[in-house]
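Please fill in the sequence for the structure shown.

STRUCTURE ENCODING:
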């Protein structure tokens, strides 16, 4: 429905090669702003050029920024540079506390310390054994600073409770004041939809601990799947430790520890008449019946966790170009890209991240300039958001949706640009029905993800792709190739906001030090930026925002 209006606004303008024509006139009359004409947007469109793209990207992917690793001084330098470009282009800061483009938040890492403890006792309090730190157990990696847990142990299956899938490990189970023991991941049964695309992350161990905490548990023990191992001692350092949002960690008030399956087998057994049912058998029962097998273990567990902690700052950089229509300027279209990458490696080799994601950030900066230099402005407001800490778990965008600088219910759509500078190249994988792709076949291709959630959003891109000479592909949207959880647009899809990820595809330099600026296809990037510019105008000017189709979850 919306596209009918969008198309109407372009009626009679023609398509192919239109932006190549010289600009004949610039209409600045306010009365004409409501009907979008090509002349009104052509100055911005013409300003998008591969020369500028090359200069900006080359700088962002240069050694000065040392790979923009989260928590490094160079990540801060990148944020400051982005903010200066926003300021130069007259964008408005949105962080109201200090009129800043920077939205700061705390990130943290934790290293488990050896004085941590895991002990098993029988029901009478007799000690049945303690477990060895690092070999038999490890405190959970997020490292909340919590009091010790001691109490009756209860096995709660996978520790999942979901109405949506009609599965509840906690049904008829009282865990108040008890230590909950759960399996990692989710029931292994192809009939269940646990692995389908869902706003709920059923296997997230932190979510399992939060649920147990909500139900009154005093501690949680998580059993790894058979074959999974605890991190080796050499992995327990701040270079390798996982990074979390400090706010998320602060919300956890009970200790948690992780044990390998072999240790889990010693803790979880069930008496059935003459024989004991093993953890493996119990797991199989749950998996095949897709029904909980929760029970009290008749034992007690003590969990004490201790950590060395590091807290540091992450910074999203966000600016806005205000809409000109009084009735629509309080609605927002967010354009996003992540500026962090992998930093420097063990041998000081720099992960330049030219494609990932200096290309997306360059697009944002160049688009900010294009919209600034165009005399007319869109009816809705445009938000330019560069995310921090994407590579370590989409943390910048996660923080943003938890603490939005513009109301999420007024955000009509989000378009994320993550790796938009290369010609995809990958070898064949017959097992996954993937055919070999050569870079020469992909000089004009752009992958779009998230489109099943909004046909309107998809159409906004499609209506301009031919004109700019870009071939849109939708093959990564679902199935084994699904990349929808792999960039910041996912944080917005989960909130029910129509969102797309634009991505030129994988290549042999992905997440390697060889992802350098000289390998970028700048002509292609110019086409992609023009596509986003045109689609953004349509979206920001249409009478209504794109529709969200939540039925795309569950695929
Ligand atoms: Zn990446």
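FILLED IN BY: designer on duty
SEQUENCE:
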């Amino acid at each position: 429905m919306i596209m009918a209006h969008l198309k109407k606004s372009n009626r009679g303008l023609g398509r192919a090669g239109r932006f190549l024509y010289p600009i004949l006139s610039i209409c600045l009359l306010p009365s004409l702003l409501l009907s979008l004409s090509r002349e009104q947007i052509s100055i911005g469109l013409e300003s998008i050029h591969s020369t500028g793209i090359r200069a900006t990207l080359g700088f962002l992917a240069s050694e000065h920024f040392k790979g923009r690793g989260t928590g490094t001084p160079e990540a801060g330098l990148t944020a400051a540079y982005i903010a200066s470009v926003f300021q130069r282009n007259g964008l408005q800061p949105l962080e109201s506390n200090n009129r800043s483009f920077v939205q700061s938040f705390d990130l943290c890492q934790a290293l488990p310390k050896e004085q941590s403890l895991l002990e098993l006792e029988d029901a009478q309090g007799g000690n049945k054994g303690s477990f060895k730190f690092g070999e038999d157990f490890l405190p959970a990696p997020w490292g909340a600073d919590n009091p010790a847990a001691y109490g009756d142990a209860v096995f709660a299956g996978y520790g999942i409770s979901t109405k949506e899938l009609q599965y509840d490990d906690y049904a008829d189970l009282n865990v108040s004041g008890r230590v909950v023991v759960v399996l990692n991941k989710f029931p292994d049964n192809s009939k269940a939809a646990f692995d389908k695309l869902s706003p709920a992350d059923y296997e997230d161990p932190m979510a399992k601990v939060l649920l147990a905490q909500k139900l009154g548990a005093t501690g949680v023990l998580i059993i790894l799947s058979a074959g999974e191992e605890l991190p080796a001692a050499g992995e327990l350092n701040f270079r390798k430790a996982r990074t979390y949002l400090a706010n998320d960690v602060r919300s956890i008030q009970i200790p948690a520890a992780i044990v390998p399956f072999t240790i889990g087998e010693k803790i979880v057994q069930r008496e059935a008449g003459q024989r004991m049912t093993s953890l493996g058998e119990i797991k199989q029962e749950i998996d095949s019946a897709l029904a909980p097998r929760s029970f009290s273990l008749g034992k007690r567990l003590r969990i004490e966790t201790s950590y060395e902690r590091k807290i540091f700052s992450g910074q999203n950089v966000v600016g806005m170009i205000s809409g000109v229509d009084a009735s629509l300027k309080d609605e927002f279209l967010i354009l996003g890209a992540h500026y962090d990458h992998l930093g420097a490696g063990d041998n000081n080799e720099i992960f330049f991240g030219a494609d990932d994601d200096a290309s997306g950030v360059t697009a944002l900066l160049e688009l900010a300039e294009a919209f600034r230099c165009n005399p007319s402005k869109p009816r809705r407001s445009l938000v330019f958001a560069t995310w921090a800490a994407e590579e370590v778990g989409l943390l910048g965008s996660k923080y943003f949706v938890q603490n939005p600088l513009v109301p999420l219910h007024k955000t009509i759509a989000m378009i994320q640009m993550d790796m938009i500078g290369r010609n995809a190249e990958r070898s064949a994988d017959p097992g996954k029905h993937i055919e070999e792709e050569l870079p020469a076949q992909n000089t004009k291709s752009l992958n779009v993800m998230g489109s099943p959630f909004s046909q309107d959003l998809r159409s906004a891109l499609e209506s301009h792709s031919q004109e700019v000479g870009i071939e849109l592909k939708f093959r990564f949207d679902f199935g084994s190739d699904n990349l929808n959880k792999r960039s910041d647009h996912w944080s917005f899809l989960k909130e029910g906001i129509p969102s797309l990820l634009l991505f030129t595809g994988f290549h042999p330099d992905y997440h390697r030090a060889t992802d350098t600026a000289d390998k970028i296809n700048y002509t292609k990037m110019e086409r992609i930026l023009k596509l986003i510019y045109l689609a953004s105008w349509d979206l920001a000017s249409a009478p209504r925002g794109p529709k969200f189709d939540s039925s795309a979850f569950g695929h």
